[in-house]
User: Fold this.
Amino acid sequence: MFRRILLPAICALFACQAASAREVTTRTWTENGVTWTETTVVEVYEPGSERIAGIPRADVKGVASFGPFEVLDGTRAALVAETDSYSPADFQKMLRAYPGIRVLEMPDCPGTIDDHANLRLGRMIRARGLATLVPEHGSVRSGAVELFLAGASRSAAPDAQFVVHSWIDDEGHEPDDFAASAPVNRAYVDYYREMGLGPDKASAFYALTNSVPNDQVVTLGTADLARYAALD
Assistant:
């Protein structure tokens, strides 16, 4: 059964923050027998929406850390913190260092402060064919639900919880401030379809996430989510 509750005050700490990321390029050349290296750092501004609920980082420690990811062993990693503009690059670095990772565990995931980057990350997870897994007592919240749906196969413990709510952009706008056919809304429905949800279920799931404003949530159980997305 769906439950609607108010978000804790911590969510307000992240609302309406613009996101940025760094693009770093390096070139090396030799001139008059001297080798020179030039590094250029460009700040990339990405205005966008955010969805986050709960504590910033889970108490999970692996053998290596890459942003919000902890490598558990040669085949498993865990998402343990909110994602941001740097997370797609963190994901790439992790897989370069540990190419054998096949499973992304999600024990306690609060969401994202950059939905644009978060959807890119989801597509990367799907492209690499990773499975997503929510263990016993796991909690996947807000923007992290999109990452769970990105799994090439998806599984969750019977007591897992999935928390959804509307996004909010850096100007305080939410989905209902735009037409249903607006690109900002279509982007999510299109994403869900890419992740294997049928057209009707993709639209219905997006409507469910928007059934409460950003400062409230709907809590789903594993069986609830399975009505919209196939689980193993």
Notes: Residues 18 and 47 are 5 Å apart (CA to CA). The first strand starts at residue 3 and ends at 6. The first helix runs from residue 87 to 97. Residues 1-23, 41-48 have pLDDT under 50 and may be disordered.
